Amino acid sequence: MGKGGQDRRKGEAGWEPSLSVSTYPAWARDVPECEEEFKVSADRGLSSEEVLRRRLVYGSNELEKHSGPSIWQLILEQFNDTLVRILLLAAVVSFVLAWYDGDEGGEMGITAFVEPLVIFLILIVNAAVGVWQESNAEMALEALKEIQSEHATVRRAGKVVPNLPAKELVPGDIVELRAGDKVPADMRILYLISSTVRVEQGSLTGETDAVNKTHHKIDTEDMDIQGKECMVFAGTTVVNGTCICLVTQTGMNTEIGKVHSQIHEASQDDVETPLKKKLNEFGESLTVIIGLICALVWLINVKYFFTWDYVDGWPRNFKFSFEKCTYYFEIAVALAVAAIPEGLPAVITTCLALGTRKMAQKNALVRKLPSVETLGCTTVICSDKTGTLTTNQMSVARLVAIGKKIGVVRRFKVDGTTYDPHDGRIHDWPIGQMDPNLQIIAKIASVCNEANVTKSGLQYHANGMSTEAALKVLVEKMGLPAGSDVSHTGEGFHCCQYWNSIAPRVATLEFDRSRKSMGVIVKSDSGGNMLFVKGAVENLLERSTYLQLLDGSIATLDERSRKLILRELQAMSSKALRCLGFAYKIDLSEFATYDGEYHPAHRLLLDPSNYSSIESDLIFVGFVGLRDPPREEVHKAIEDCRAAGIQVMVITGDNKDTAEAICCEIGVFEPGEDISSKSITGKEFMHLSDKKKYLRQSGGLLFSRAEPKHKQEIVRLLKEEGEVVAMTGDGVNDAPALKLADIGIAMGITGTEVAKEASDMVLADDNFSTIVAAVGEGRSIYNNMKAFIRYMISSNIGEVASIFLTAALGIPEGLIPVQLLWVNLVTDGPPATALGFNPPDKDVMKKTPRRSDDSLINAWILFRYLIIGLYVGIATVGVFIIWYTHGSFLGIDLSSDGHTLVTYSQLSNWDRCSTWEGFKVSPFTAGSRVFSFDSNPCDYFQSGKVKATTLSLSVLVAIEMFNSLNALSEDGSLLTMPPWVNPWLLAAMSVSFGLHFLILYVPILAQVFGIVPLSFNEWLLVLAVAFPVILIDEVLKFIGRCNSGSRTRRRSQKHKKD
């Protein structure tokens, strides 16, 4: 059986290991050449001494263990973010201010430190989520190790060593593989012990079915993994057969080792998501702005730090007021705290988490939160074909049978895209009147078949070759001839059971690549034996002499009939159908009475080289065309991608013709489009001089016969071009590209654990349309995130304007840091989170994707923020001034509490109160408290400002609630998008107002926050001052819509002119 070189012994003495062994093209060398290169003989193996010498050079046969960053490094990395660092500074500052605030108020308990503790808690949660995500990055490498073999049967020093630890293998070892074994290293097959050997290597190559292996060399050294038929690779599994192999590569030099290296390399290149980049840029700008405003506030008020006397016309006796310096430092710090959106990270995390729940409902399981936002700016989807664009369930699409006479064929169209026998039908089928020709086709398809189809729940699953499973489904759709005895059938695939019961198999001629066919010897109705054969149509025609006609009669297969069949074959092949022919033989000579291994003819079956002669002088009966059909919903999904400006690239390991046909059918290519420049093999792409130019083409692109390195190169080049790339994959070989892509998408059903661990998102249904739905959801989530970022930032600008105006006008401090932190963290939080529930725009998938470098806030939006922020500042400071200076406002009586009115001049010069003659202040009430200033009237501007401060805080809260309504849409009016389109927002506003009422009307909380209850009239004043923010933004939105419309018209006119 071709045990090449087994009786030749190679001397090991003096052999010096060469690093070239790791690149030796063993697949392109004969068996004796391989034995010579590795200085080993197949029957003896390596000696113990030689094994030790080689292990010193090549090391153990295991994947490297890359030491990841320590837990402390991961934690520190989470603070390598501008916004987080600002928050950390805010936490420290708020801690100090809380200390002073508590000290001055006599409350040094834990309540004084609620806000800094909350900020620290936000930072801890943010860091914990980041550490968890980072630690998951190494899980793909760990999952890769799980698929390695642990033991091997090895021949050493002439003896067989069973269960040798696989890590002890070295190049040159002789290994025996049996069915069920996991391949322990990359190896060259020396010879087959069984007639055939099949290996499941789909996880490494992407092939759907197990592949047949041979010991014959390949003619070229430049060959992809799929084409190395005499090689077996580490981590793959032997499905059937036994063979002897020579270890050629171990450890990191194996194909799976290369994948390991690529995953590790890709994990080192993790780049920031588009949103993270924008937030970092925003944080850096915010840092500069905060610094400038704080400095400006200090400079405006530096005159209060110093006092001096004039002597002889010259300033003398300079005095520095530390108290004033500290006071304005607190104002500057309060301004900084106001400028920082402390709740933003928490709200973003919450919104992304809610987004993952929405996506999970659509079968998209997001493993990394930032991926939700990144999906929204995806510009290119690189999709696998098998199982993603197609069902990964082979089905028969055409059946060709022989007609009534020579030169006539019958064609039947077959519907159905799954293994469900009730899915689809055969058109123009003679139900219950199957002629002898159709009966023999059904019999061969059923009996000459190794597959099984089983039902699990509502789904049908194939066990064995997918093409054979499709044939069994076809047999069920064909039905049974009239008068059939169905008492044998039982349940399940009863037609197949029927044909197998009347033609029991007695021997199998296994498939091999040389003759491209499989045969079975069965018992016939007459008591003798028949041979059923299925295989490549051209090969069966070459070995066929006769033709069976419709009525069962036999005719000579003449040249005319042969050409007719070949024309039909060509027509079906041009539609990317995989064709299988059927033939049989009645006169079996020495096998006519064959009944098992004790029959004299059994010796002929032991040598597969005899199979071609046994399968000769056949009677050809017909053939079928099979395909992996596209999913029904994919065509619309690709149309949606085109409308959304997303380019679809198909990268598959399948052959070019099949892939092109599927891509044309599902709409990757336009009808009638010249695809000669858009369809290319992976190898051809790698040889292009300008790869980026090729990738810049508009429309769909197809890469067939692609290997993992091709996928990685495509992703890398697209990212260099500024594209945001989503990549699908299911196998071990896809993991590096999944890791490298902006969004790695693994298959949930067919995907390996390695691919899932390397991915950002897992498709629970392996469906391309789910990706498109997820992109739409990602866009909607991004729009909602922009809404609450707009809301929070505009609110913060208002707070900054309020503090700045307070300092610039010289009036008493209206809002203290503790109150601002409460607003930023608690009051703003619910509405900001609720904005994440905004319904998606109807045209969300009709807009082109945003660029990853598009600014979060454009010039017009910033201008709007500034206008709104300026109004917030004027309103909060204005209501403070109104209380001190007006007894009524807009007809609202404010004098019922008995407070004393002062002039604006007095208010803005309150620090000189001690110099005022005859200044007196009457007591006033606030809730159940009475404030009296008999001992120190000037305290009216310190402790006496509590009512004015409460009004300012309440106006700020009310304005921000109204402003959240403005954030429902960037440009849409509240008349077209009313508040009830997002009921969650109305509920959140109620919660925020409720929280504000809580701190107002619960005495202990009111004391902590330095506020007092308000009367009904005072609430009317708050609403009157706050409501105009809606009217102002409506005007600004109207201007924005007008400008946007005029720009669109100008672009349209320019396009028409062009």
From TrEMBL:
Q: What is its main location?
A: membrane
Primary enzyme class: translocase
Q: MF terms per GO, please?
A: ATP binding; ATP hydrolysis activity; metal ion binding; P-type calcium transporter activity
Transmembrane region positions?
82-100, 112-132, 286-306, 326-354, 788-811, 862-884, 984-1013, 1019-1040
* Annotated catalysed reactions: Ca(2+)(in) + ATP + H2O = Ca(2+)(out) + ADP + phosphate + H(+)
Q: What is its EC number?
A: 7.2.2.10
Give the superkingdom in one word.
Answer: Eukaryota
Of the GO CC terms on this record, one is: membrane
* Listed SMART domains: Cation_ATPase_N
Keywords associated with the record: ATP-binding, Calcium, Calcium transport, Ion transport, Magnesium, Membrane, Metal-binding, Nucleotide-binding, Translocase, Transmembrane, Transmembrane helix, Transport
List residues of the Cation-transporting P-type ATPase N-terminal domain. 25-99
Q: Where in the cell is it found?
A: Membrane
Provide the topology term for how it sits in the membrane: Multi-pass membrane protein
PANTHER family the UniProt entry points to: CALCIUM-TRANSPORTING ATPASE
By sequence similarity, the record places it as follows:
Belongs to the cation transport ATPase (P-type) (TC 3.A.3) family. Type IIA subfamily.
Q: Which NCBIfam families match?
A: ATPase_P-type
Q: What is this protein called?
A: P-type Ca(2+) transporter
